[in-house]
Every structure is written in structure tokens, then in C-alpha cells.
Amino acid sequence: NSDEVLQNWEQLKKAEKNLAQERQALESSKAVLELNVQARTKELQKLQRRYEHILNSAGEGICGLDSQGKTTFANPAVAKLTGWKLDELVEKTEHEIFGHNGSDGEAARTDDHPNERVFYRKDGTAFPVEFVKTPIEENGTVVGAVLVFKDITERKRTGKDLLHALE
């Protein structure tokens, strides 16, 4: 009986030793995974800062729209060009932002060029823009759009001045 107890005791000690080794290996693997996650997180944050810097530096207004046409992000140029504050732009539709006095009305089209519209600022003043609206697709389904626009007031004015000079 004492031999059995001794054998059981040795098996228990061996099992405890194996368990301790496995626990140490798991903790080591966990530490390596945590380091990998931290490195990936830093890379993603760096990329995010880079993309935000690009968007924030662009002179054109850039809006991200969800599938319902509501703004998910807007760069500072949108706020500067429209008179809306950045935090006011999120969740508004493009029609609320660019329509007359923030109404749900469509931005006025110009007959001259299909990529030109007349947008309205928050204060109701109009300005001509050239814009591109590109759908965002995931797995063949449209999930939103990116709207990029620039104020072409100066270009229009120069064109009119040139036309008057030619006449």
C-alpha cells in the first residue's frame, strides 16, 4: 500500500510539474501575442493618423456618407466652406448640409456641367462647386459614398471676366 501511495504521490508531482510547464508556456505565448497586438495597434494608429492628416490637409471638402446618406465624417474644409461646425455635420444628410438654409432641398444643379452644383452655406449664401460623389461598395453592396467638392467661385469669376474681355 505504501508503494501505491508513493507511486500516486510521484504521479501527482509529475502532473503538477507538467502543468506548471504548460502554464509557463501559455503565459509566454500570451506575452508574445500581447506584444504582437500592441505592435499592430500602433501600426493601425499610425495609419489612422496619416489618413486623418491627409483628409484634414486637403483643400477640398470631403464627406463620408453612410447608406442612408448621413455624414459619418467631414474634413475641416467642409466646415470652412459651408459655415457649419465639424460636430454639427455628423449625422446630417448632404441635403441638410448643402441645401438652401440647411433645408432638405436638393443642391441646385447647373446646366453647364454635370459635375457642378450650387451649394448653400449654413447662412444661406450660395457658392458654385465642382464635385464628385463616389459610391463605397463592400461585397457588391453599396454601403455609403464619399463626396468630394471644391469651391469654384474664383474660376467662375475669372471665366466671366475673360468672356467680358473677349466681347
What do these coordinates show?
This protein is an alpha+beta fold and 167 residues long. Helix content is 51%, strand content 25%. The chain contains five helices and six strands; from the N terminus they run αββαααββββα. It has helices spanning 2-57, 76-82, 86-89, 94-98, 153-166, and strands at 61-66, 71-74, 108-109, 116-120, 126-138, 141-151. Strands 2-1-6-5-4-3 form a six-stranded antiparallel β-sheet. A hairpin with a 2-residue loop joins strand 5 (126-138) and strand 6.
Quick rundown:
The protein is of the alpha+beta class and 167 residues long.
Keywords, separated by commas or semicolons:
5 helices, 167 residues, 6 strands
What is this structure's SSE topology?
Elements: H1 2-57, E1 61-66, E2 71-74, H2 76-82, H3 86-89, H4 94-98, E3 108-109, E4 116-120, E5 126-138, E6 141-151, H5 153-166
